[in-house]
Each structure stands twice: as C-alpha cells, then as structure tokens.
Write a structure and sequence with these properties.
With 257 residues, this protein is of the alpha/beta class. It contains eleven helices and nine strands.
C-alpha cells in the first residue's frame, strides 16, 4: 500500500483475507491502520483520519477535526473537497452494509455505490493526496458493480501467517507467559498450527496454560474446533497418522508441492 501510494500509482485500496488477525505485534487491523500506519513515517503519515463502519457514521479519529462525525453523503462530499496540502485517510470497515453484493439493489444502495465509484475515479481524487482503504473479509462482500468498474482500486489479499510468522509468535508467548508448560517444541507447534490465525494460536496457548500443559493432541483438538466453527461441515478433518500421500489418488501437482 505504502509503495503504490508513494509512487502515485493508486490511492484507493481494498484489503481482504486475514483481516481479523493481529497485524503488527498484537494490534488488530483497525487499531494498526488508524493508530499507527496513518500516523507514523514508516507508514503513510496523514493529517487526519476518518473511520467508518456499518455501526456508526464516519468519525474523525485523528487530526484537528478529531471527534467530527459525518454520514455517508457528508463523507463523500468531504472526499470531493479540495483540501490544499492537507492529507486525509478514509478507512471503511466491512462496507457491505453500504456496498451490498447482489444484482437487486435498493435505490439508496445504488446511490452509495455510484457516489463512491464516482469519487474514486474522479481526476480530483486520483490527483489528491487523500487515500481510501476499504477492509472486508472477501472481495465478494462488495457489489460487483463497484468492483468491476473501479480501475483505480488496488486489491490486496492478506494471507494467513506462514510457518516463520507462527514460530516467532509462539516463541514470544512462550517467553512471556511463565505458566506455560510446553509438552511439544515450538517448531512442532508451528507445524501443527498451519492454517490458523495468530489470534487462534494465542487462544490455544492460553488454554494450555489454564489446563496446565500444551500437548500436540490438545493443539489438534483446539485446531479442529476453530476450523469447524468457521467452515462447519465443508471441511472434513481426520487423523493422518499411519497415512502418506501415496494412499490418496490424484492431485499429483499438489503432492509435489
């Protein structure tokens, strides 16, 4: 985001994927964006930040107008307004309330989609120093009419933590929580927790601390609970002990990977 913004390639972004996890340290996406990324030189330092979600109006959370509130139409008008050298960030969380998916839309929904589309594609906004960041689980949460007609919108999918991220996170908790009794190594737990968010890994470790010991069986049982809670019966989980990839037919490319 920072590199594309600094290079004047884009100032409108859609972040999807693993948005409910820790981003930096133990900060959630919203807290990191409004509290760090748009206030520090390592990110993109802005003069003011407006935060909008489905439960509230747009609220200025940083800058000289801190506390100011705007409804959707007022926020759109503010995006159009020439601000001189001042730079404003608009962070929109879970905007499916305003930008609902589907083909059959209410008049107000269409107006919301078209108004934001018009702003993001206007030469005035494109050439400004302002930035819009839309955050939602998946791109399909946003109406295709909006997505398909916004050539200036850059989409980034945030991946789940990889093995090194998981290992570093597990190590930091093991070193800070003295009551943790690890029955498995950090390396082994990093392998067992593949596919989980950092927040889920933290819950497993804290649960283990409460139970008195973290074991491989406990990790797998809790992992199964997390996955079934999110995906229901869509994904079937079974024990792999005693099996190898040779026992399963097909998917040769994936096996090599």
């Amino acid at each position: 985001v920072r590199s594309r913004y600094k290079a004047n390639i884009s100032n409108a972004f859609l972040l999807t994927g693993n948005i409910g996890d820790y981003v930096a340290g133990r900060k959630y996406m919203k807290d990191y964006l409004v509290g760090n990324f748009f206030q520090e030189e390592e990110g993109i330092r802005m003069d003011q930040i407006f935060y909008y979600d489905m439960y509230s109006e747009a609220v200025c959370v940083y800058g000289k107008n801190k506390g100011q509130k705007m409804n959707w139409d007022e926020m759109i008008y503010d995006m159009k307004r020439v601000k001189g050298s001042a730079r404003t960030a608009y962070v929109l969380f879970y905007p499916s309330f305003i930008l609902p998916p589907g083909d059959y839309l209410q008049v107000e929904d269409k107006k919301s989609i078209l108004s934001l589309h018009a702003v993001l594609n206007s030469s005035q906004f494109v050439n400004s120093s302002d930035i819009v960041v839309i955050v939602t689980d998946t791109a399909k949460d946003i109406n295709s009419l909006f997505l398909g007609n916004n050539s200036k919108l850059t989409v980034y999918n945030i991946e789940l933590p990889d093995r090194l991220d998981r290992k570093g996170f597990i190590s930091s908790i093991v070193n800070s929580v003295r009551s943790l009794n690890m029955g498995i190594s950090v390396d082994e737990m990093a392998n067992l927790t593949a596919g989980l968010q950092l927040t889920a890994i933290e819950d497993i470790l804290l649960y283990g601390a409460a139970e008195g010991r973290v074991t491989g069986r406990m990790v797998m049982d809790r992992k199964k609970e997390v996955i079934q809670k999110e995906f229901g019966e869509v994904i079937e989980i079974f024990e792999t002990e005693g099996y190898s990839l040779k026992d399963f037919a097909g998917q040769e490319d994936i096996k090599q990977y």
